[in-house]
Amino acid sequence: MYICSCHAVTDGAVRAAIKSGTKTFAELAKLTGVATQCGICGRQAKALFYQILHEETGVETPPQREARRLAEAADAAAQTPSCAATPCGRAGGCQGCPSFHTHDDKPIE
Ligand code: FES
After folding, report:
1. How many other CB atoms sit within 10 Å of the CB of residue 78?
2. What is the CATH number of the domain that holds 11?
3. Which of 101 and 2 is assigned the larger pLDDT?
4. In Å, how far are 9, 18, 88 from 35, measured between CA atoms?
5. Which residue's CA is minimally distant from atom 1 of ligand 1?
6. Which amino acids bring their CB within 6 angstroms of ligand 1?
7. Assign residue 53 a region: left if phi > 0, alpha if psi is -120 to 50, beta otherwise?
8. Which mutation among 31, 32, 40 tests ligand 1's pocket best, with the greatest number of atoms within 8 A of CB?
9. What is the distance of C-alpha 35 from the center of its chain?
10. What is the predicted pLDDT for the residue at 78?
11. Domain residues for 24?
12. CA 43–ligand 1 middle distance (angstroms)
């Protein structure tokens, strides 16, 4: 299947490039010319490149990396205690507390 008609680049050529060591879309573009003329193929070619790169090498695709980053941030946020869960129970978080204190309710000196 052709993914770039300007430079006659196929999905097979992308796979072959990856198997021979191409690790970035920029390298692929330099090697094959994909997405370097009219640019219409760029978005789809990049998605296909990362899909094949993942299939061949296990490297995370940008969407997978972003999903992992968001999940890690959500986990970190869930593990961060909030003032609402402490004995003071004040709204607005510790920064808004008039007597700024730690979560074990010890005053900060
Ligand atoms: S179709 Fe790929 S650069 Fe034009």
Report:
1. 7
2. 1.10.10.1100
3. 2
4. 10, 17, 58
5. 4
6. 4-6, 34-41
7. alpha
8. 40
9. 22
10. 73
11. 2-59
12. 10
Q: How many residues does the chain have?
A: 109
* Per-residue confidence (pLDDT) for residue 56, from 0 to 100: 94
Q: Give the pLDDT confidence of 62-109 residue by residue, as tens digits.
A: 888 999 999 998 888 777 655 554 555 555 555 555 555 555 555 555
Domain count, the chain: 2
Distance CA 8, CA 33 (A): 9
CB 65 within 8 A of CB 53: no
The per-residue pLDDT for 45 is 96
Distance from the alpha carbon of residue 27 to the mean position of ligand 1, in angstroms: 16
Task: Return the pLDDT at 72.
Answer: 92
Q: Is residue 43 part of a domain?
A: yes
Q: How confident is the model at residue 5 (pLDDT cuts 50, 70, 90)?
A: very high
Instruction: Render the burial of 34-68: b for 16+ CB within 10 Å, e for the rest.
Output: bbeeeeebeeebbebbbebbeeeeeeebeeeeeee
Residue 103 lies in a domain: no
